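Researcher: Last one for today. Full complex below.
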Amino acid sequence: MRLIRAVLSVAFRQSMTTMKPAGRGGPLMLFHIETGGCGGCGMELRALASAPYDLGGAGFGLAGTPAGADMLLVSGPLTRMMAPVLQAAWEAMPDPKGIICLGDCALDGGVFGENYATLGGLERHVTIDLRLPGCPPTPADVLAGLASLLGGGVQESMPRSDTGGSL
Amino acid sequence: MGAVDLIRAGEPTPSAWRFRLHELAWRDLVEALRTDPLPFCGLWCDGADMHALFILRDAPLAVTLVLEDGRYPALSPAREVSTLYERAAYDLYGAEAMWARDVRPLLDHEVWPCSTPLAGQPGVSEARTGLVAFQPSEKFVAATGPVDGWGPASGGVAPPWHVAFTQSGGVIGLAESQSGYAHRGLALRWRGSRAEEACRLSGRLVAGQSVAHQTALCMAVENACGHVVGEKASQARVALLEMERVLHHLYTLADMAERAQAPLVAAHCMMLRETMLEQISPVTGSRLLMDCCRPGGVHLPQAEQMGALCDSLARMGLAGHPALQELWDSFPGLAARLTGLGVTRTEDLARVGLEGPVARAAGQDCDTRRLLGLYDGLWRYTAGRQNGSAADRAQLLLDEIAESLTLLAKLAVHLGDAAPGRETLSLPDAEGMAMVEGPWGRVAYWVWLHQGRLAQVFCHNPAAAALLVFEEAIKGQPVEDLPLLACSLGVNAAALDG
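Model: Here's the assembly. Have a good evening.
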């Protein structure tokens, strides 16, 4: 565990400020929204946000409201009841913004493909900025994926900010 | 006549524990249940019949009624928790419960492309778009005080649901939940599925309780087949169930501690859990123990390591448990925050039939492990604090962690270096039922097999009863403690919505 913490600290913390987009201060804030799955991806996200992982040290934070978020982190298949909730959360986020899909269900529905209650995953409906496949992805997988987002530059991964974006 | 006699006076079915009643006898049963304490497990529809499941001295007792013009006499006047099942049956099948206590939509909030999607002929729907409005009961409408809400998108990690509540001075007066946000149509997905597919789905009904759901489903299928899995496979299942209980309880304690402003305690719980997961995931192939059970046995990438894993987890966990207990007891303000919070009353628990750790922490004597042959010679639980508050529930979870770890130590000896696997099943046209003790209480599955597939599946879990207990326990509590209380009572929208 100490090794993991040390690796995370060295890999992300020291270079975080240089990888963050110009004009931004503090961590990249994620607003998590579970759109109707089993909750497994949320559990792994919770694990990632706890010891021994170091989500905060890697340059990310979990926002309490969409208005305070940079990225929308979606897990679970999109139920028809949650679709307008997701849309409202997206519209409440300031620009620039983007979408991360956490787990197979959020991507393509996983085992919960489209039926009367669900719309399946998001990939058929919107442009996804970061894909984190798995059922569920492990905290290490999620962290590696998020780190690639910072490494690639957040600005480039938010292509729809000037169009207003729509779910 | 008592309820049991009324049920047994019905027409026998191929299953010795299920009887078919005519409508008048069903009405008599409802009347008898007003005074008879027979524990109620669940109610569901298959499109043609209504089925009610009871538990008599830890054994199933079921009753069936054919729908007359799509209607049946409601059980909710005698069993309040039946309200949730009746509302679901109406939303999914259009089965109308006469004299029901509550007829508000539970799952169908008119955003689906059709109504009654599981009925032989689904109906027409407005398929509305936009946010679903909260639909209060008459009692809620009549309540005084400003109305506030929480969820379905709170930024947390839990499955989505909504709670509306009245408040005065930051204290909750009356609370009502709105569900359906996490409904994925499990009943339809199970219908006509192969046993392995059904098992995979049941493992994803609610995360953190995957082993319980998969084991119960597998055992129900095996019971329908008249098949008994081998001793080592049974022991491996028990080991998986107890590992899941330990992991689940640590996660729940961490969640409670975090919400009670005790981050150090939360970190300690999650660290211990993560240390265990490092050992568990290579052997089971899944950190959340999904897909470890299959009909006919278990499916483990390193099955021969199960004995060693049980031994290692028990040693590590029991060595770390005293420190966790001491930290929990001594962390400044934690005990004071939880003591007296969300006290569950015995009559509320009995009224809705909630079992599991919530009931045990309130002095109820209930644990499905007591009756399972799987646990013969292994399980012995000694009751702890029983005052029914969040502090009591937390202490019970801590006690159960130690108990499960002790059980894993015993299983390590039994399992040795055996490699439990699975046997191939031949599925007849039959029905089967089975139950296990999941992390939050009894999980029961009832399956109908037809032409080598699962024709119908009914799942019972504690989520429905937990929701009703939550709505009672939240009264008079601070608004900011709502998520903490929901966590400590095991409210889970994924398990409820299905």
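The first strand of chain B starts at residue 11 and ends at 12. The longest helix of chain B spans residues 231-259.
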